[in-house]
């Protein structure tokens, strides 16, 4: 039996250690039976709850009082067992808060590769896009409320199942997770929204020369340059 544990965190900010996990959601995908199990969720004690992050998940400091601080081992204890891998949508965020004892799959990076033409690669947009296409059938009750750890983990588990059903393998997705985001289109400048094949050579070179350019964007630009050089060889 292969179990992939999908996780989602709600937090008090974006950068630990100042930011803390205030809610954990887990949802197992039983891959051999292609079954998404019921999600579990719990709150965590935190020192503060800034209003700008509370506005996203609506968790108050009072709700977190009396709960233990986030302990990563709780996701892998005797109650839930140790999965073969974990997954998260934008796993780079969750893995800021703990070191995973098992391989990691980022469903966001995988979705960019498997469904480059999706209208959006956010968790919620993919859920409805895949649902409209008849590729997933989540229980709507378990997907609510949005921006809470349990429902979001449950939604991501269905996205992960659809990735497997559309031919992606666990080995591939683990490898993609270790690489930068493969963006299907250029996201900036006068070529915003254009396929990389339509971006001028000079613009690609300009991207590589910018010291403040995101490394993921430089990687995509360099990848397109390498493709062109290979095609002309």
Report on this model:
The chain has two domains: 3-177, Nucleotidyltransferase, domain 5; 189-232, no CATH class. With 233 residues, the protein is an alpha/beta fold. It is globular, with a radius of gyration of 19 Å. Helix 3 (91-94) links the parallel strand 5 and strand 6. It has helices spanning 51-57, 61-64, 91-94, 107-114, 123-132, 149-165, 170-177, 201-209, 215-232, and strands spanning 3-11, 21-30, 35-36, 40-43, 85-88, 104-106.
Number of helices: 9
Mean pLDDT: 96
Give the overall silhouette.
globular
Secondary structure category = alpha/beta
Total strands: the figure is 6
The helicity comes to: 25-40%
Distance between the termini: 47 Å
Rg, Cα atoms, Å: 19 Å
CATH fold-level assignment of the largest domain: Nucleotidyltransferase, domain 5
Low-confidence stretches: none
The helix/strand order is: EEEEHHEHEHHHHHH
Sheet-strand content, in percent, reads: 5-15%
* Full CATH superfamily name of the largest domain: Ribonuclease H-like superfamily/Ribonuclease H
Q: How many strands, what sense, and barrel or not for the largest sheet?
A: 6 strands, mixed
The assigned CATH architecture of the largest domain is 2-Layer Sandwich
How many structural domains can be distinguished in the coordinates? 2
CATH class of the largest domain: Alpha Beta
């Amino acid at each position: 039996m292969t179990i992939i544990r999908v996780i989602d965190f709600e937090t008090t900010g974006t950068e630990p250690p100042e930011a803390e996990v205030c809610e954990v959601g887990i949802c197992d995908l039983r891959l051999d039976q292609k079954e998404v199990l019921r999600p579990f969720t719990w709150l965590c004690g935190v020192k503060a709850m800034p209003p700008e992050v509370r506005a996203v998940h609506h968790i108050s400091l009072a709700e977190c009082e009396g709960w233990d601080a986030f302990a990563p081992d709780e996701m892998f204890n005797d109650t839930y067992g140790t999965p073969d891998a974990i997954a998260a949508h934008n796993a780079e965020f969750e893995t800021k808060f703990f070191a995973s004892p098992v391989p990691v799959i980022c469903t966001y990076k995988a979705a960019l590769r498997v469904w480059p033409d999706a209208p959006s690669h956010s968790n919620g947009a993919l859920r409805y896009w895949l649902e409209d296409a008849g590729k997933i059938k989540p229980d709507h009750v378990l997907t609510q409320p949005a921006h809470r750890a349990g429902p979001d983990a449950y939604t991501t588990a269905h996205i992960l199942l659809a990735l497997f059903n559309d031919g992606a393998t666990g080995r591939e997705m683990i490898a993609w997770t270790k690489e930068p985001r493969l963006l299907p289109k250029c996201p900036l400048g006068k070529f915003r929204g254009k396929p990389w094949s339509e971006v001028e050579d000079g613009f690609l070179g300009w991207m590589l020369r910018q010291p403040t350019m995101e490394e993921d964007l430089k990687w995509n630009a360099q990848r397109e340059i390498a493709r062109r050089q290979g095609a002309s060889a």
